């Protein structure tokens, strides 16, 4: 699979986990990989790395989001789609050193596909602020 396709699969799992807080993460990973017929070891490794890496660094990632959100917004108001996209993008930029231009572009495209009308602008603006702070 192309990296953008596997990133989309990782995002979809991150999104679903936003609704399932107290689950066995390893079990969910295995079920998701099996259910989506992901065979390539590099693809499996990428998804596992993203999910486990986000979980391990979740507090720091959420602090980045909270720090860069505008004053009229609250963290709790961010849609689950946008939250999942932000977590994935911030994790890859900050912890995996993926070039921020690539990551922002991918996140914006996923926001256009999965988010509401304003999602892509919100994601682009938030990630620009996060990158500027780094």
General description of the model:
Helix 1 (3-17) crosses helix 5, helix 3 (41-56) crosses helix 5 (80-95) and helix 6 packs antiparallel against helix 7. With 134 residues, this protein is mostly helical. Helix content is 74%, strand content 0%. It is globular, with a radius of gyration of 14 Å. It has helices spanning 3-17, 25-35, 41-56, 58-68, 80-95, 100-114, 119-133. It has one domain (3-133): N-utilizing Substance Protein B Homolog, Chain A, CATH 1.10.940. It starts with a helix and ends with a helix.
Topology diagram in text:
Layout lengths: L2 H15 L7 H11 L5 H16 L1 H11 L11 H16 L4 H15 L4 H15 L1
Helix pairs in contact: 1-3, 1-5, 3-5, 4-5, 5-6, 5-7, 6-7
Short description:
With 134 residues, this protein is an all-alpha fold. The protein is built from 7 helices and no strands.
Which range does the strand content fall in? under 5%
CATH topology: N-utilizing Substance Protein B Homolog, Chain A
Low-confidence segments, given as residue ranges, are none
CATH class: Mainly Alpha
CATH architecture assignment:
Orthogonal Bundle
| Count of domain modules | 1
Key terms:
single chain; about 130 residues; mainly alpha; N-utilizing Substance Protein B Homolog, Chain A
């Amino acid at each position: 699979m192309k990296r953008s396709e596997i990133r989309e699969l990782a995002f979809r799992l991150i999104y679903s986990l936003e609704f399932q807080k107290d689950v066995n993460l390893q079990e969910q990973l295995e079920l998701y990989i099996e259910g989506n017929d992901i065979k390539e070891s590099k693809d499996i490794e990428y998804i596992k790395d993203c999910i486990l890496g986000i979980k391990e660094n979740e507090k720091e990632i959420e602090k980045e989001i909270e720090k860069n959100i505008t004053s009229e917004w609250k963290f709790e108001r961010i849609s689950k789609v946008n939250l999942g996209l932000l977590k994935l993008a911030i994790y890859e930029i900050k912890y995996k050193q993926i070039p921020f231009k690539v990551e922002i572009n991918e996140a914006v495209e996923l926001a256009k596909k999965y988010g509401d009308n304003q999602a892509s602008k919100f994601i682009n603006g938030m990630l620009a602020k996060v990158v500027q702070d780094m």
